[in-house]
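Readers outside the structure-tokenisation community will struggle with the description of the input data as it stands. For illustration, here is how one protein appears when written out as sequence plus structure tokens:
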Amino acid sequence: MRIPVKKSSEATLKRKGAGALVCGLSLAVAACSSGPESAERQSSSTQVYSGARQLEQLDRGLIAVPADEGVLVSWRKLQGDSDQLSLSLYRGGELIAEQAVSQSTNFLDRQGSAGTTYELRSNGQVLASVTAWETPYLNLPIDQPKDRTTPDGERYSYTANDASVGDLNGDGRYEIVLKWDPTNAKDNSQGGYTGNALIDAYTLEGERLWRIDMGRNIRAGAHYTQFMVYDFDGDGRAEIAMKTADGTVDGEGKIIGDPKANWVSGEQKQEVRDRTGSQVTSDGRYIGNLKGRILSGPEYFSVFEGATGRELDTVAYIPQRAPGDDNPSSEQMKKIWGDGYANRSERYLAGVAYLDGERASAVMARGYYERSVIAAYDFRDGAISTRWVFDSAAPGVPDHFGGQGNHQLSVADVDRDGKDEIIYGAMALDDDGSPKWTTALGHGDAMHVSDLDPSRPGLELFGVYESVRRNGGIGSAVIDAEDGTVLWSKSAEKDNGRGLAADIDPRHPGAEVWALNAPELFNIKGEPVSPQRPRQVNFAIWWDGDPLRELLDGTTVYKWNWNTGTSEPILETEGTSSNNGTKANPALSADILGDWREEVIFRTEDNQSLRIYSTPIATDISLTTLMHNSQYRLSVAWQNTSYNQPPHLDYDVGEKVKSAKQ
């Protein structure tokens, strides 16, 4: 099923329903600014470009990891490296390897040990130096906040939660941006006070650069604060973009908005429509607790300087709770979002996209169960401007663009025009914010967008769906990401809460897919290839050096054994914890150091450190750093959004390796 959209109708869309939440205009897609002029699109000599896209200027990311038979030393192959580029590796001043980056970007030094020093050189020039790790991980001390107390006397502490990376100071190395969640963080369905969410930045040596306190008027929980770390203005240094409120304190101590404002609801009860988080009365009504919810007050969108945490610019947050109204009544909210107690209206998503094909924009969204409003922002020359806003409830928007959002979004150039589209669960927006397609399959908890089927042109989407009673009983599906055509689907009788797509079996081209609602493992054509799927359905990771992806679940990496139909652990960490309950995701998984394989970051059980694990396994595959693949890099940026998903490339690794050998 797919519902096509006629482009000719987009410019004349009129407002309907409770009001279009679009910059005060009455268009379903409002172009609130013309975007950056060509004169502003100045390339920098410090930047790398993939086509027209500005990418990060990274160093070689040299690391040396203890291995079973010595030390594995690895480094980055960068976008723009010639196949003839040869790099030399020295141990203690002695040449031990000279390799073309097209052939290898790692070396197993059998004479190396913890504390051994290495240098990477090119034509005699030292590019990087490193000392071999003492442990299988890099330990980064972090500064756990002190315990605090809620207005009703509840004491809470803090746990390290989701993380992201960006080059905050322009030195070619990643820094880590970390969210601290209070132990009383809440789901939107739950009433109750929460502590303030905090955002820290750390160097890879564990030096804290700054802390942003989101303040009491931003509730803590997985659906509230999505923080985008990216170089939005093109100066070679990443910024942090996120929703803020009165009382947010930046990294230099400046307070945004009214420092005395308190928009947190007190002890109040209201009849609600959702059983989850509610009390059930004797006559079957659901009563929800409004305590701790944010139902009114101004909302902001802010961009912070990556190096200092200093607020650079703040504007009113789009989309608002109600058109032109920060303080709507419960009935207004119910009419706009589907409830009046901030369950549906306060579910936020965020991403980063190259909407003009050259410079990155921030994408901020609100709502996915019923109404969805999505805004694209540019940050240029120190100022925020709105590029466009989409409202699923505006007139002229075809049916079934509301209620299609997931607990995450994805960003990819699905039509291969050089500009990114926003895949918002079961629907997609074009680069200009216009509706592109919808499958009308409804809300889901997980999706994966990549070249899942290399026998077909373009990208595919694998998604799992919750609304099986309303979508024809479809629990999972593979979809053409360009036009929304459902290529095949599997039925379900109830909410299908988790699913994964990754190439884990070399006997079948492309990815395999599996979901909680079915016992089998399927190939990308929908054919069962194993009666038993992996039990792991959360994350995937490139770890052991072959083109296949491994499984990351909790604090363990597994290898799928396609002969026995079982998952075998190949990395078991100790003293670490995963995040977000049954989602069991790491703080971050991404290619942030060394060669193209991915690192994984876990918090320690005592929340005193982050640990970065990197593979100790040598490989004969050489790929450009995954972070210079635009879709993958953007996936890392949105990984912290709501229900975290693993990052995906826009190509199939197996096919890439095969073509390189021909």
